[in-house]
Amino acid sequence: MATIEIQSVECVPASDGVEDEEISSQTHPNNQYSSKPHLLLSSAIAPTSVHELLECPVCTNFMYPPIHQCHNGHTLCSTCKTRVHNRCPTCRQELGDIRCLALEKVAESLELPCRYYSLGCPEIFPYYSKLKHEAICNFRPYSCPYAGSECIVTGDIPHLVAHLRDDHKVDMHTGFTFNHRYVKSNPREVENATWMLTVFNCFGQYFCLHFEAFQLGMAPVYMAFLRFMGDEVEAHNYSYSLEVGANGRKLTWEGTPRSIRDSHRKVRDSHDGLIIQRNMALFFSGGDKKELKLRVTGRIWKEQQNIDAAGACVPNISI
Ligand SMILES: [Zn+2]
Ligand SMILES: [Zn+2]
Ligand SMILES: [Zn+2]
Ligand SMILES: [Zn+2]
Questions:
Q1: Which ligand is closest in space to the CA of residue 67?
Q2: Where would I find the RING-type domain in this sequence (predicted)?
Q3: Rg (CA), the chain
Q4: SS3 for 305?
Q5: 149 C-alpha vs ligand 4 centroid, how far in Å?
Q6: What does the alpha-carbon distance between residue 51 and residue 185 come to, in Å, rounded to a whole number?
Q7: How far is the CA of 86 from the centre of ligand 2 (A)?
Q8: CATH number corresponding to 6-136
Q9: Does the predicted TM-score (pTM) go above 0.85?
Q10: Cβ atoms within 10 A of the Cβ of 56, count?
């Protein structure tokens, strides 16, 4: 690699620095985590210019085959091509259906840093395997863990904690024990699934406690479970217990919190939490069974081998 003469690529817009300037000044809302490819290694070619060529001038994302060009050589990604109604966005000429094979070949010879390098990922990849890695990169932003809405917010954990508090008005608690009452006046309406989310801050980490009603097969149930705001490996350092009961009966659950990389629905559908049948929930609620009044208590603890890191916060594990 690294011997390509960029000047010989036909679809390069010739010496139109002004135009490039205009294009790159279009800010792109989703570009918060896009690559700033200054880390290119082991290449004799001027990295920035090649990278600029591979940036779609319309959406500013990197282009992957098929890369298109107009008759004047202006390039365009395949996603944008479907949106511009056969007009080159740069020169307004008819676009036609021309592949820019030379640029695709140039791309093949490149190595680029992971697009999340600014979030800490040190990896470098051949251009065409970069996307595959980025889909599973440990440094990729997390999705908003709020359930029951199609929230598209992503970011790191501090960003999402602030987002949950400010935008979803989620209750925030400090501490590793909890004692929550869930009250619902119309417990027959499981179909209108209710979601409740509380965020706990302990051990320097954040946890999402979910409580919700849904239909499990034919049976209406309630379910409570915990998710860890971080990756799966770290989630395994923690355990939690949940307990619900009344009148001399109780149900308990002990488990490992799931990472918020696993969607709320995925955790729910794998039944990885405390599941309470509605009849039992109404029994626990006491009274005339017209109202749901569940008291859920629980604890989060750090596993023993990491007791030093957890410091004084580690609760007594034996009950
Ligand atoms: Zn594009
Ligand atoms: Zn054009
Ligand atoms: Zn990465
Ligand atoms: Zn959200």
A1: 1
A2: 56-92
A3: 26
A4: helix
A5: 8
A6: 59
A7: 11
A8: 3.30.40.10
A9: no
A10: 21
